[in-house]
Backbone:
């Protein structure tokens, strides 16, 4: 197995949980958003392929020209590790609660790249 061109942190950065809550609270009531974030905090870090994450969530990968994807690419090029992604399993289907730009970057480099994440 070849080494990933993206270096990943062993666990999710703490500020990403707040970002996930902020996103989810736009789509759900605050209690439900908080419950989902709590579940993600308790979940183990696992991994899925970038293309599978995008297919399951129904999202299209953002291009390398997207400002957020560019920012993450610059981090990778400077040797910085990226935080694992947070994926929630809402009643209407899975969604990326935090890390859409990171998944898009991984997909643009290699659609079959393994991306670490927490599911909740």
Residues:
């Amino acid at each position: 197995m070849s080494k990933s061109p993206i270096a990943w942190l062993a666990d999710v950065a703490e500020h990403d949980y707040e970002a996930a809550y902020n996103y989810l609270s736009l789509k759900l009531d605050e209690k439900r958003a908080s419950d989902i974030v709590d579940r993600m905090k308790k979940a183990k870090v696992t991994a899925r392929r970038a293309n599978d994450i995008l297919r399951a969530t129904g999202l299209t990968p953002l291009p390398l020209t997207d400002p957020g994807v560019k920012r993450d690419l610059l981090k990778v090029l400077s040797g910085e590790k990226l935080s694992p992604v947070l994926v929630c399993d809402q009643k209407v289907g899975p969604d990326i609660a935090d890390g859409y730009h990171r998944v898009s970057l991984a997909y643009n480099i290699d659609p079959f790249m393994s991306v670490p994440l927490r599911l909740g």
